[in-house]
Amino acid sequence: MTNRERADQLFSEASGIIEDMWRALQRARWNLATRRAQEVIELIVKGLLNEMGVEYPRTHDAAPMLAETVRQRHLEADHAFLDWLIVMSARLAQLRGPAFYHPTTVGGGCFLGVSVVAAADTAALETGYGACAQEAHALAPTYQPRSVCTDGWHATREAWRRLFPTITLVRCFLHAVLKSMDRCRGALRHEGVAKAWGV
What we know:
63% helix; 2 domains; single chain; 199 residues
């Protein structure tokens, strides 16, 4: 799926959710209307970031990243609107409530560690993946994994580096292929994917 296709998918989801939001407003279901409004803004903002080839944060409030990207790239935009969007997105995300993430470590055909954290930044993920490290060190105090396969998310990779400084980070093959698919078009895309899956 290309960045453009993913963006179109996010825009389409937002369009469907807008209808739910209007129905909730008409029925005076304020909590649901607020949640749907937040989802619409989140999906549109992430769709725009995706279309620009920007890896958006795993949070409900990506508007600051969109505004920063627009400013860094000197794109034509109404800066008053961007400022309003940042405030509105933050407020709706706050009203919606916290997001939760589940750092999960799997190896040898079993779960080695699963935890819940409230953010997807390096510090939070270090705490989450640290549950696995603590359990491993309780069984073998000198435990040091040689490698870990991750999704390529910077915060995930940095969390593992902090937990095990000598670890070798391997990017997940699936995520690498999907990322390369976003960069190619037409026949080159199909040829590249066919060769990658044939490895």
